[in-house]
Amino acid sequence: RGGLRITGLSKRYKGATDRYAVRELGFTVEQGQVLGLLGPNGAGKTTTLRMLMGLIRPDEGEIRIFGHAVRPGAPVLSRVGAFVEGAGFLPHLSGRANLELYWRSTGRPVGDAHLEEALAIADLGEALDRAVRTYSQGMRQRLAIAQAMLGLPDLLILDEPTNGLDPPQIREMREVLIRYAAAGRTVIVSSHLLSEVEQSCTHLVVMDRGRLVSAGEVGAIV
Ligand code: ADP
Ligand code: ADP
Fold it and tell me: How far is the CA of 53 from the centre of ligand 2 (A)?
């Protein structure tokens, strides 16, 4: 039943450039692996992750997550959590209140052990009880990532979570990912910097201009 399997995935955006954003991409991620999706800007990372999340439809190919085919419009799998930039928060509420509001909106009770465990992993410290309007950009980002972790999804997808973070925050993010994966959960995290993924990831998929360049264990590639 495993993790995630992508085969023959292609996507071309209509209009302007008419180039493939992703072309004949294939890789697998086993349960418990932390996969770094690495490549320069324009490599096709965001397009790939948006197809994984069911937000856009591939032109060709198949994605299976935990044995289920991913299709746009189908209900998002409850076992998948995702961070994408620009999550909206209510500025006058605390970080905790925002996350609790989101949590209740998914139909689950505040006080649920999953919520507290996810907050412990995210480790936002005293900031959690401050109003979001006092947050730095980096803190907002960390709150959005905590939100993606709330249900402790078996697969966590993070698109460039360190964008806009400073070096200490990047180090903290690495610790957060390692703690998240420690319980055998699967993580996919994209980055354009090798230095950001080589220490927190077990495996790498390297992309360039829509295509797979290499894939394997971190030690075998780096
Ligand atoms: P990355 O995340 O690695 O930077 P993207 O998946 O965002 O790569 O982009 C891959 C290619 O697809 C780029 O050439 C980009 O300009 C193009 N692209 C991305 N999104 C769109 C879109 N909505 N419409 C047209 N072209 C797009
Ligand atoms: P990333 O590097 O994270 O993929 P981008 O800055 O490339 O982010 O893209 C930001 C937004 O602009 C995305 O929604 C993407 O789909 C869209 N976009 C990117 N490239 C193009 C393009 N060539 N034409 C139209 N939309 C694009």
Answer: 16
Looking at every residue in the chain, the average pLDDT score rounds to 89
Mutation probe of ligand 1 site: the residue of 19, 46, 59, 159 with most atoms within 8 A of C-beta: 46
Chain-centroid distance, C-alpha 47: 13
- This prediction has a pTM of 0.88
> In the predicted model, what is the mean pLDDT of residues 180-205?
92
Three-state DSSP state, 90: coil
Q: Are 171 and 199 in contact (CB under 8 A)?
A: no
Cα separation, 164 vs 217, in Å, equals 27
Q: Rounded distance, CA 119 to CA 9, Å?
A: 35
- Are the C-beta atoms of residues 166 and 138 closer than 8 Å to each other? yes
Helix (H, G, I), strand (E, B) or coil at 142: helix
- C-alpha 101/C-alpha 93 separation (Å) is 10
Q: Is the pLDDT of residue 7 over 90?
A: yes
The DSSP line for 132-182 is: GGG--HHHHHHHHHHHHHTT--SEEEESSTTTT--HHHHHHHHHHHHHHHT
